[in-house]
Specification:
seven-stranded mixed sheet, about 0% helix
């Protein structure tokens, strides 16, 4: 059983910073992609950033230069450092684990709320 647990969300003022963490547990293939997605009320879930087990990263245009994704493979943990936060970043952030082993498998965390407001 694969489980993803997010932490680090909260309330922050515009221009502030937060660091999200997601720890994966269970049995899964070492070669995978982990990432962060977010969903604001009334909007579809969108990609924020992804990182492969080889540390290849991909970012949404809206967060480039402000957010940094990283991972600790021995701990099966992915991080999202969020700087220069804007009110538009307010959303529930979900951790994702994607494994391609013949069929693609996706696992999701429960989500952590990030609110950027004065």
């Amino acid at each position: 059983q694969v489980q993803l647990v997010e932490s680090g969300g909260g309330l922050v003022q515009p221009g502030g910073s937060l660091r999200l963490s997601c720890a994966a547990s269970g049995n899964f293939f070492n070669i995978n992609t982990m990432g962060w997605y977010r969903q604001a009320p009334g909007k579809q879930r969108e990609l924020v950033a992804t990182i492969t087990s080889g540390s290849i990263t991909n970012y949404a245009d809206s967060v480039k230069g402000r957010f940094t994704i990283s991972r600790d493979n021995p701990k099966s943990t992915v991080y999202l450092q969020m700087n220069s936060l804007k009110p538009e970043d307010t959303a529930v952030y979900y951790c994702n684990l994607r494994i391609r082993d013949w069929l693609t498998s996706n696992y999701w965390g429960q989500g952590t709320q990030v609110t950027v407001s004065s």
